Amino acid sequence: MNELRQALSVQGRVIYALILREALAKYGKSHIGYLWAVFEPSLQVLVLVTIFSALGRQSPVGGDLAVFFTTGIVPWLIYSGISSRLSGALGANQALLSYPHVTPFDVLMGRALLESITMLVVFVLLVALLQLMGKALAVYDLFHVLMGLMVLVVFSTGVGMINSAIRIYFDSWDKLFSAFNRPFYFLSGIFFTAASLPPQAREYLQWNPIFQCVEWVRSGFFSTYQNTYINYSYAVVSSIVMVLLGLTLTQYTRHKARNL
C-alpha cells in the first residue's frame, strides 16, 4: 500500500510539473497568452451573434443569443483543443520521455488537464460576464452542466490519445484529422438544438457524442431546454469506450513513443 501511495505521489508531481511546463510553452510568461484563451471564444460568440442578429434570428431556447452560442462554442473548443493538442504531445515532450519517471500517459494527461481546466475557467468567466451584463440568468441545473462537460472532457481525451498513437506511425495524421473534424463544427449543435431539427436530421445527428454533450450542457443551463432527445447513456458509454481505446493504444505504443 505504501509503495502504491508513493508511486501515485510521484506520478502526481510529474503530471503537475508537465502542466506547468505546457502552460509556459503555450501561453508564455506574459498575461497576453492567457487573455487569448478568453478572447478566442468571445470573438467567435460575437461574430455569430452579429450574423444571426442581422438575419433576424433568435435563440431556439429563448434568452440572449450570446448565452446560447457560448454554451455551444466553449464545449466545441474543449473537444477541439484536447483532441488535437494531444496528438502532438509526445513529439513536443520527447526529451522528457527519456526520464524513467515520465511516461507517455503522464505527458498526455498533463496536456489534457491543462486544456480542460483552461477552457472550464474560460467558460465560467464568460458566463459570469454575461450575467453581469444582464444577458444570462442563473444556471438552471449545475449538476447537468458539470456532467455534460465532464463526459465531453473524457470523450475528447480518448480521441486525443487515439490521435497521439496514430501519429506515432503516421506523421501526417494531424492534417487528415483536422480535415475530418472540420464538418463537426457545423454538426455538433453550436447553431441549433435537437428539438429544432427535422426528425430525419435529428435521427442521424444524435449519433454524434459531441452533439449529445452540448445538448446535455444546455439542458442544465436553460430551464426552457427540451432534454427529450438527450441519450445520456450513449454519451457516457461513448466516452468510456473512447478513453479505454485511447489508454490501450497508449500502453501498446509506449515503447515506440520513447524512441520517435
From TrEMBL:
Signal peptide segment: none
UniProt keywords, alphabetically: Capsule biogenesis/degradation, Cell membrane, Membrane, Polysaccharide transport, Sugar transport, Transmembrane, Transmembrane helix, Transport
Residue ranges occupied by any ABC transmembrane type-2 domain in the UniProt entry: 32-255
Subcellular location: Cell inner membrane; Cell membrane
Top-level taxonomic group: Bacteria
Transmembrane segments: 34-55, 61-79, 112-130, 142-162, 183-201, 229-250
Pfam families in UniProt: ABC2_membrane
InterPro entries: ABC2_TM (IPR013525), ABC2_TM_bact-type (IPR047817), ABC_2_transport (IPR000412)
Membrane topology of this protein: Multi-pass membrane protein
Family to which this protein belongs: Belongs to the ABC-2 integral membrane protein family.
UniProt-recorded name of the protein: Transport permease protein
Species whose genome carries this gene: Vibrio panuliri
